[in-house]
Amino acid sequence: MAIDLTKLTATAPGLVDLYKTARVSLDKHRLGGERAAVYLVIDHSRSMSRYFKDGSVQALALCPLQKLDLSHTAVRDIEALRGMELRELDLSHTHVTDLSALSGMPLERLTLNDSPVHDLRGLAGAKLKSLSLAGTAIKDLDALAGMPLTELDLRGCELLTDVQALAHCPNLEHVYLPRQIKVPANHWQLSRLKFIEYERHNETSLARK
User: Fold this and answer.
1) What is the DSSP string of the chain?
2) Which of 8, 63, 108, 111 could form a disulfide with 90 if both were Cys (CB 3.0 to 4.6 A apart)?
3) How far apart are CA 194 and CA 173, in angstroms?
4) How far, in Å, CA of 132 to CA of 162, rounded?
5) What are the extents of the domains in the chain?
6) Where does residue 110 fall: left (phi above 0), alpha (psi -120 to 50 degrees), or beta otherwise?
7) Rounded to whole angstroms, how far apart are CA atoms 41 and 79?
């Protein structure tokens, strides 16, 4: 198993017995040397409330997680995530507004749908490939210039009026635009851009390059 038993004993002794049981089961099925993706989903149920209050959720920053789903939770502050090696993070339907804790994180996919985020400066310099901002209150995309984005979702971003920053995202292939912005598919002259989808009367129209 990839997790060191000595380290686990020192940081989470309550998990040692479970670790040993899992190890026996894996070895029995000849899977002891295999690696697997581990997903952790934290919900906003009453039974989880005390873990948000006592800092248990924040302690996840010590875990070698790569994917974390905090969507539909009461999370407001993600400072505890600073320094984590996350590749994918979902903060949709949370109360998070400050993204500065994500600075320097090797994120490739970030979902912020229907969150109160309105400032993307905390993402400046990020290496995101997929970013979903649907239903947020963002007003400009300047922080996205130069990112290796391939997919961007801006549906429902009613305060957004300018998307010129996307001209500096050379890897962009697929863009969802809010209904108030109408641009031809060849507007940015991006070689990899395949098509743009935009809202119109609660529907989605497709403009191919």
Assistant:
1) --S-HHHHHHH-GGGHHHHHHHHHHHHHTT-TT------EE----GGGHHHHHTTTTGGGGGS--SEEE-TTS-----GGGTT---SEEE-TTS-----GGGTT---SEEE-TTS-----GGGTT---SEEE-TT------GGGTT---SEEE-TT-TT----GGGGG-TT--EEEE-TT----TTTT--TT--EEEEEETTEEEEEE-
2) 111
3) 5
4) 17
5) 1-36, 39-208
6) beta
7) 18
Task: State the Cα–Cα distance between residues 136 and 16, nearest whole angstrom.
Answer: 42
Distance between CA atoms of residues 44 and 35, nearest Å: 29
Note whether 208 and 184 are within 8 A (CB).
no
Residue type, 148: P
How many Å apart are CA 150 and CA 21, to the nearest integer? Answer: 42
HSE-CB at 122 with a 13 A cutoff on CA atoms is 17
Tens-level pLDDT at each residue, the chain (209 residues): 456 778 767 766 776 777 788 778 878 877 777 776 666 666 656 777 777 677 776 666 566 778 889 999 888 999 888 888 899 999 999 999 999 999 999 999 999 999 999 999 999 999 999 999 999 999 999 999 999 999 999 999 999 998 989 989 999 999 999 988 877 656 667 888 888 887 765 444 444 44
Question: Could you give the count of Cα atoms lying within 13 Å of 18 in the half-sphere of its Cβ?
Answer: 6
